[in-house]
Amino acid sequence: MHIKLLKDIVASSVGQSATGIVDLLYGKKNVNEFLIAKKLKLTINQTRNILYKLSDEGLVTFIRKKDNKKGGWYTYFWTLNLEKSLSKFKDKVSKDIEHLEQQISLKKSARFFICSSCHAEMNEEQALLHDYTCPECGELLQLKDTSAEIDQLKQQISKLEESLSGVNKELDIVMAVEAKKRDRKMKNEKKKILAERAERKRQRLKEQKKLVSAKGKKVKQEKSGKSSARKK
Ligand SMILES: [Zn+2]
Questions:
Q1: How far is the CA of 129 from the centre of ligand 1 (A)?
Q2: Reported pTM
């Protein structure tokens, strides 16, 4: 996992100043917010503001514990949500790519005109309105060659696609780990249920045995009572 990638994700949702949190939370679980505040040299309120924002975005999760030493206030413990962070970043990059592709198709479909002396730029409609002459200097407008701009946009897209495939790889790893965890949890729960069921059955059998033996004793007592009565 690239910490840099996570920092980009955090920066894009709450700003560059919060990226130090990634170093403190990465690879850890349930980190005390007072420790985070101390390490970031922020007040507890500033720290909480950042963490609440990240939590609203689903990038971090928390548990809270009542601290009786601090007058019964709650202390929050924070954990990075890797899966959510990555899938959020993936969505963002995908949208950026889509936006760039729209720009390319716009540039390909529409014609733009430019003045070679004062570099004023306009679309076909505006150019027609000005009779294909520059409204500033009167120069004849020229059809703008957009191929360089399109190339640049294409380069941006391929960069984003690269980072998208990086995110996808990370996401696959994280999701596999999460699936294993869930699997293990489910197996343990199943084991627990089976053990409980077996225990209940054992108890039931024990009760039944008690009942049978109690009945047996009663019958024996009655029998012996009868035989002794006959003797008399
Ligand atoms: Zn001009």
A1: 15
A2: 0.64
